[in-house]
Amino acid sequence: MSMRTTLSIIKADIGAIGGHIAPSPELVEAVRNHVAVHGKDFVIDFNISSTGDDIAILCTHTRGVDDEKVHKMAWDAFTTGTQIAKQQGLYGAGQDLLKDSFSGNVRGMGPAVAEMEFEERPNEPFLMFAADKTDPGAYNLPLYLAFADPMYCPGLMLSPKMKDGFRFVIMDVNHTEGDRVIELNAPDDLYDIAALLRDNQRFVIEGIYSRTTGEQAAAVSTSRLHNIAGKYTGKDDPVMLVRTQNQFPATGEMLAPFSIGHYVAGFMRGSHVGPLMPVPRNSTTSFFDGPPVVSASAFCVQNGRLTSPADAFAHPFWDHIRDHVSQKAIEIRRQGFSGAAMLGLNELEYTGIMEKLDRLETEFQVRDHKSAEAAGG
Length: 377
Ligand code: F6R
Ligand code: MG
Ligand code: MG
Known about the structure:
Blueprint: E1 4-12, H1 25-38, E2 45-51, E3 54-61, H2 68-87, E4 112-119, E5 125-132, H3 140-148, H4 155-158, E6 166-172, E7 181-186, H5 190-197, E8 203-210, E9 216-220, H6 225-229, E10 239-243, H7 251-255, E11 263-266, E12 272-275, E13 277-279, E14 293-302, E15 305-306, E16 310-311, H8 317-333, H9 352-363, H10 369-374
Helix pairs in contact: 1-2, 3-5
This protein binds fructose -6-phosphate and magnesium ion (MG) (2 copies).
């Protein structure tokens, strides 16, 4: 018997050991305890993991997306955790909790959220992705390749269940007054989709739907702390849910594009460009506060009950990819602040450079050629 299940991932950075490296075990335990105790009446199952300095709560329930009770429970888990973070002197305690009190929904309050409600298939495999030291646009390329490009997803040409392609819902995250979205179909609107997705800082895939069955396949956290807080608060460290197999890309088709280790925004001070490294669950960050990392946990869910996670990027294949990504990271770091290695001015997460440029502006002089000539120059 199938049921309507909601998967919710709510994740936040509420403090880390040694800088922005990893949460302490006590902090993770405090969040886990809170969910176990305070979610017990409505959470069917849950799983806690960390990626870099972020803690992700994955939970299943039947209350639908944007549910106040679920969001409040997660918010309270993070505020409870923050007390531990403060006691332990962890760096950036409570960093992502941007508001003082909870008001209905954690969207716009700091934590990243990705949720999906669906009728469970007889077997229901899905992937949970969590990334650190980058922003939601980091998923644009892998999603495009897995859901619209037969070079990466042969299922698009081989499987009759995917022959109609997928509908992409893309958000303009610069529009902060409300959700500004566009719906485009692959493969029909492929060039339009590409035209938007090239700009990872402005246009972010929010959701993807099967055009054959109408079912939702993917949900991405699209919030940008940059836009919420109006100043530097860390990068957005996005999470994503992707249902796989059968009418959706196979798990391996969804994982394949991550072998590129594509360059994304984030890295040190949220202000650089670095390659996205696929890592096991609960990995730390290191080199140059990075590189940007992404973990992938594979689950099956039945009647809201989760299996234990299979750690998709822990397989030895990814060791080779990680070596390659390390090389890409070293290569771009060699040019320091110059050109493509650092983000454009409106993406820099620190204000120091604007202050410098404003001061220098007053010291520039326009050379007067005429008076130089008259003086015999
Ligand atoms: C990146 C990140 C870190 C910090 C850096 C400086 O998202 O969080 O790279 O930006 O460690 O941190 P502060 O300014 O807190 O000393
Ligand atoms: Mg942090
Ligand atoms: Mg983080």
